[in-house]
């Protein structure tokens, strides 16, 4: 079973790389429709120190020679350009995030045929999904069921980390809520006292004014 | 689509099946800005695959009041009929069994004029069944169990993504409440002080000499 697995895995590994370029745009990717003019952007809110791996390719839709040319640009939340390619039909980019925020990937059509849109397949993976399992398998010499279970273990660890993150965010939000609640009470009491103080000042001022005018 | 599938040979079909047993179908939660209608496409390889996902409308500074129509989601199968639809929500989960393989269209519709950002996540999960086991002798029942386990972990991860996105939205609301509270309270105090000052000025004017001479 192991030898057979090893024999079938090697061409599968090679085919995986080929498939990613030829067949897979459309297997594990989301497709976007680019308008004939204008930019289509997708974004994601990412934490720092997360690996981002993405593949994009224009999809064959009509005649094979009429493939639209697109440009792609990826920007960080602070405005730095992480990837910029013009006049391509496919490409890929990978980076590790340094700041927390919204990472934006924009695509637009470059070719002269402005009347027709284009379809771009984008395979965007971050964090645990971007891990290169083939190199891990080769390095640790694990394969088959053991590799699958290792992947599942990594997924469980990611779930655990996410849960802790959600818990800490919920704690922060609860603090904000409780502070707001305390402030509402405090501001209402202060508003009532401002009302009373202002009316006392009014009465005191008017009394003095009428006494000065000898009206009372 | 049909021409593309026919050009894939039998060996590649087995490779795809082998790949699917090793490469989890997985996406990241991308955000897209919906002006009127935004469609994303997702390819489902097998009939009977469970397509699950969620979407949350990320709030900006404009907050929805109770009569906001919300965002609609319509999922269309490759044959053109609507498989799933959700109307007027600020975010929800969805899950359906794909009636056939092919390209599924997920359309977000924004009935309002202000553009909204929708963060969505779509996952296509395949569990090898007896038919796949019979076709490919390299799959044994343990792969089925591993696939089920992977799908279960995937659903936990998807739930966490949904919770994270809803938490972001909730946090926006909370912080806006806090900001608005401070702003409105200070404005209220100012308005109160100005109103009472104007009252005093008006009463003084009522009683000043040139007017009172003819009255009192």
Automatic annotation (TrEMBL), chain A:
GO terms for cellular component: membrane. It is found in: Membrane. PROSITE patterns: GOLD (PS50866). The chain crosses the membrane at residues 184-204. It is a single-pass type I membrane protein. Residues 1-29 form the signal peptide. The keyword Signal applies. Keywords: Membrane, Signal, Transmembrane, Transmembrane helix. Its main location: membrane. InterPro entries: Emp24-like, GOLD_dom. Residues 39-151 form the GOLD domain. PANTHER family: TRANSMEMBRANE EMP24 DOMAIN-CONTAINING PROTEIN. Belongs to the EMP24/GP25L family. This is Transmembrane emp24 domain-containing protein. It comes from Musa troglodytarum (fe'i banana). The lineage of its organism: Eukaryota, Viridiplantae, Streptophyta, Embryophyta, Tracheophyta.
Automatic annotation (TrEMBL), chain B:
It is a single-pass membrane protein; Single-pass type I membrane protein. It comes from the Eukaryota. Keywords: Membrane, Signal, Transmembrane, Transmembrane helix. One of its GO terms (cellular component) is endomembrane system. Its main location: membrane. It is found in: Endomembrane system; Membrane. The keyword Transferase does not apply. It holds the Pfam family EMP24_GP25L. SUPFAM superfamilies: Supernatant protein factor (SPF), C-terminal domain (SSF101576). Belongs to the EMP24/GP25L family. This is Emp24/gp25L/p24 family/GOLD. It comes from Musa troglodytarum. The lineage of its organism: Eukaryota, Viridiplantae, Streptophyta, Embryophyta, Tracheophyta.
């Amino acid at each position: 079973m192991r030898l057979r697995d090893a024999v079938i895995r090697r061409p599968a590994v090679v085919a995986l790389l080929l498939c990613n370029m030829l067949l897979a745009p459309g297997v594990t990717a989301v497709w976007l429709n680019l308008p004939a003019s204008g930019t289509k952007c997708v974004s994601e809110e990412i934490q720092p120190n997360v690996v981002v791996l993405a593949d994009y390719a224009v999809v064959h839709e009509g005649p094979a020679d009429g493939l639209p040319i697109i440009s792609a640009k990826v920007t960080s939340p602070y405005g730095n350009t992480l990837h910029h390619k013009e006049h391509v039909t496919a490409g890929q980019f990978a980076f590790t995030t340094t700041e927390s925020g919204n990472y934006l990937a924009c695509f637009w059509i470059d070719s002269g045929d402005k009347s027709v849109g284009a379809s771009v397949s984008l395979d965007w993976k971050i964090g645990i999904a971007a891990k290169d399992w083939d190199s891990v398998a080769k390095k640790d010499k694990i394969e088959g069921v053991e590799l699958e279970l290792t992947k599942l273990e990594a997924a469980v660890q990611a779930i655990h980390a996410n849960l802790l993150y959600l818990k800490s965010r919920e704690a922060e939000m609860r603090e904000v809520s409780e502070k707001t609640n305390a402030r509402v009470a405090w501001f209402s009491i202060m508003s009532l006292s401002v009302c009373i103080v202002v009316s006392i000042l009014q009465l005191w001022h008017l009394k003095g004014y009428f006494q000065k005018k000898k009206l009372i | 689509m049909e021409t593309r599938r026919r050009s894939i040979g039998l060996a590649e079909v087995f490779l795809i099946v082998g790949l699917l047993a090793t490469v989890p179908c997985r996406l990241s939660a991308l955000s897209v800005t919906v002006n009127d209608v935004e469609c994303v496409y997702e390819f489902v390889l097998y009939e009977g695959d469970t397509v699950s996902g969620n979407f949350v409308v990320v709030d900006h500074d404009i907050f929805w009041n109770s009569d906001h129509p919300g965002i609609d989601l319509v999922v269309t199968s490759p044959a053109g009929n609507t498989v799933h639809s959700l109307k007027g929500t600020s975010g929800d989960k969805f899950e359906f069994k794909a009636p056939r393989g092919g390209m599924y269209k997920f359309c977000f519709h924004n009935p309002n004029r202000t553009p909204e950002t929708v963060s969505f996540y779509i996952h296509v999960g395949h569990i090898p069944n007896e038919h796949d086991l019979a076709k490919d002798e390299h799959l044994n029942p343990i792969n089925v169990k591993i696939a089920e386990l992977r799908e279960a972990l995937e659903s936990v991860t998807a739930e966490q993504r949904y919770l994270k996105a809803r938490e972001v939205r909730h946090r926006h609301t909370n912080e806006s409440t806090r900001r608005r509270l401070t702003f409105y309270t200070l404005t209220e105090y100012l308005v109160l002080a100005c109103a009472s000052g104007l009252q005093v000025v008006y009463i003084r004017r009522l009683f000043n000499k040139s007017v009172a001479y003819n009255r009192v």
